[in-house]
Amino acid sequence: MPLGLLKYGLSREYPAPRYFRDCTQPKKSYDAVIIGGGGHGLAAAYYLAKDFGITNVAVLEKGYIGGGNTGRNTTIVRSNYLTPEGVNFYDASVKMYEDLSEELDLNLFYSTRGHFTLAHTESAMRTMRWRAEVNKHVGVESYVVGPDEISKACPQLDIQCSGQAPILGALYHAPGSVARHDAVAWGYAKEADRMGVEIFQMTEVTGIDVKSGKVVGVNTNKGYIETNRVLSAVAGFTPRITDMVDVETPIVIHPLQACVSEPMKPWLDTILVSGSLHVYVSQSSRGELVMGSSLDPYEVHSTRSSLDFVEGLTTHITDMFPFLSNVKVVRQWAGMADITPDFAPIMGKTPVEGFYLDAGWGTWGFKATPISGKTMAETIARDMAPDLIKPFRLSRFEDYELTGEKGAASVGH
Amino acid sequence: MKLLQCPINGIRPLSEFTYGGEYRDMPDPDTCTDKEWAAYVHYRNGAPGLKKEWWYHGPSGTWFIAERDTMTDKVSRTYIAGQEEKQ
Fold first, then answer.
1. CATH topology of domain A111-176+252-337
2. Is any Cβ of chain B less than 8 angstroms from the Cβ of A126?
3. Residues of B with Cβ-Cβ distance to A251 under 8 angstroms
């Protein structure tokens, strides 16, 4: 790579290749259309091309790629969930992430840090033990640790949390990692484009054409596109898309906010989460503390951020790390999280033939990017969902077979 | 600080209120189909727009209805359920 950099330095023109072609006008028809150019949609396009040779695919993005929840999450990758179906699914994703930089030929800054979910109450300890046992059962490295081990891994943490909520222990999850989230979207876009997938930015879907229960095309602000397979991977915009095809879902949209501090020298090399204090924090490769909290308490379709959020979050952060009281928050933002009643995604087929759903990603979507792309690609190519995502089918609600996932970031214990 | 009009107590800070979800008519469990009941239990109208919602004022224990645009987060009016006409 240093030699490559030298080439950049000596060239009169900027020699860096584009990551993907600058597509402007879609063709008349495609084998599949993917709505949403975030990590999930681009990953699905990549695996459609790579695993199934389906390259006549358009990815339609109403903004710019990775500009939605892919670029708004707190970049944590982990698999220490509560239900066996959840743990199996996210574990498959973590394993794919570990090799992804190599596969996409792009440094994703994937950094395995270890992940502590702190417990401040006996009932939270009980949930941690439960999660540890489920994790061990399916072969994921998670175990319960005491305050001493937490202090050893993170000496800066006030175990008493300023006396407000003393830490009794934690669920330690060794594979817990962080990654550069926009690089994930760009890496998938680059490789999908190389195999022939066309990516259209600033292209909004305005309607989906359904004839006798089958998808036949989509209307966009750049004209009509014929296709009989459509994947919706639009996170917070899902209800607007499902309304176009009259598919009912339990999804409601709540904003999820996050913020970063000013950059500091590296001092926090693990990822810390506290369900009781509604905080998760890690230090990015730029030195900023990346901090997130639980969902905003009511439905809003907007990405405005609020002072209430920073006040609440920083109160809890300074309980954990009193010395951060002098550190400034430099940036805050929000994403629109598509929440399901059982805190698990909705993936697979729908009552409309050819309309596939990859939604309900709430606060747990980024970590699932590779595996959701791979399994949704298989669902589209074979018109059948693989076993791994069958528990997440849309019809589970009508069958009263909800998953009972409580390992999500938005759930307090 | 965001504010909300409680129909009993007037304008109060939003932190005193709890969101209770969209106002929906319950189908008759004796006559509706299993599918209709499952839809009532689980499915929601998730698209943005002007919605009738349940809100709860904690300190006074008041449940009431707010009409709110979920896109702009602007509340157009609030009233006690069933007393809409008196407003």
1. D-Amino Acid Oxidase; Chain A, domain 2 (3.30.9)
2. no
3. 44, 46
